[in-house]
Write a structure and sequence with these properties.
It comes from Govanella unica. The protein is an alpha/beta fold and about 325 residues long. The chain has eleven helices and 16 strands. Strands 3, 5, 6, 7, 8, 15 and 16 form a seven-stranded mixed β-sheet that branches. The chain has a six-stranded parallel β-sheet with strand order 11-10-9-12-13-14, with helices on both faces.
């Protein structure tokens, strides 16, 4: 049996329920994992609340670490006892055990523990594709990263700094500003009392930045466009304050021939070779010490509703992990 979290309707944290389900042997191409740590991410809130609608009833959770306890036919790269992690689903991470396709998991290096792995896979792989593929950050770039003290932000800002970029980050409080400064941000803007667009223009002597990474969504989108230099790239990859309204493409023309993209980790990691290569690059920067993974909150899986409330209320920093 496996104890797992399900929702039968979209809504607040109260819709999260526990069910006991039979745990079958893995089919061809699958492995069975005994999970040891589960990542908590803002996309989980979108799934639970219906911002990203799911067919119901549905499991939740896209990220976890664990140990392989059974291997199905035609799995050649994994064996019982291997420590592995995943960060791009499929849904079902909120459980003490599960079946998953073998090509969706990666082996963990010995020096990365399970809790840290569960706090870094989805967020770290997101940072990897944003910085190395969506816009390839290089030495000398000045970039703007919103929510710099969040789970993705703390990883991405350290990583961008290690690449030689000047990093401008936005945060919501002085406490988060200090955290962002300690994790790679050269300039921190507290958006609750500063106009971030004006400050970016001031920091860049009016030039703007070549790329903006924005997971905040509705409340920052328009201002972010005004931070870009001509031919700059607007990367909107989340909706913490709500969905961005429809955009007239002519706006991109009038603001300097801008580019706009709405990437997803599922698209970037759809192929096993991309997932593996991205994970290896993530492990490398973590093992080198260039990027430190901060797991700042842990909850028991039994307290998942409280964890969702804290995340939704912006009371968390860095990574958050659920322990089965």
């Amino acid at each position: 049996m496996t104890r797992t979290v399900r929702i039968t309707q979209a809504g607040g944290p109260e819709v999260l329920t526990f069910v006991d389900l039979p745990l079958e042997d893995p089919a061809s191409g699958q492995v069975r994992l005994r999970q040891t740590a589960i990542g908590l991410n803002f996309i989980d809130i979108y799934h639970r609340s219906g911002v990203y609608p799911l067919p119901l009833p549905s499991a939740l959770g896209l990220e976890a670490a664990g140990v392989v306890e059974a291997v199905g036919p035609n799995v050649t790269d994994l064996k019982v006892g291997d420590r592995v992690a995943y960060g791009v689903g499929p849904l079902g991470g909120y459980a003490d055990a599960r079946l998953i396709a073998a090509d969706r998991v990666v082996k963990l290096p010995q020096d990365i523990d399970d809790t840290r792995a569960a706090g870094m896979m989805l967020k770290g792989l997101t940072a990897q594709y944003l910085l190395r593929r969506t816009y390839r950050v290089k030495a000398g770039d000045t970039i703007l990263f919103h929510a710099a003290a969040g789970g993705v932000g703390l990883i991405a800002c350290q990583w961008a700094k290690s690449l030689g970029a000047t990093v401008i980050g936005t945060v919501g409080s002085d406490e988060k500003a200090e955290l962002a400064r300690k994790h790679g941000c050269d300039h921190v803007i507290v958006y609750t009392r500063e106009n971030f667009t004006d400050r970016v223009r001031e920091i860049t002597d009016g030039k703007g930045v070549p790329v903006v990474y924005d997971s905040v969504g509705k409340s920052t989108f328009d201002g972010s466009l005004d931070c870009l230099s001509p031919l700059g790239l607007m990367v909107t990859y989340g909706n913490a304050t709500g969905l961005v309204p429809p955009v007239d493409p002519q706006i991109l023309s009038t603001k300097g021939g801008l580019f706009l993209t709405r990437p997803t980790i599922m698209a970037y990691m759809a192929k096993n070779q991309d997932l593996t290569a991205s994970a290896n690059e993530l492990f490398e920067v973590v093992q080198s010490g260039k990027v430190k993974i901060e797991v700042n909150q842990t909850w028991s899986l039994a307290d998942v509703a409280d964890a969702h409330r804290a995340l939704e209320a912006r009371k968390t920093t860095g990574s958050s992990v659920l322990l089965p």
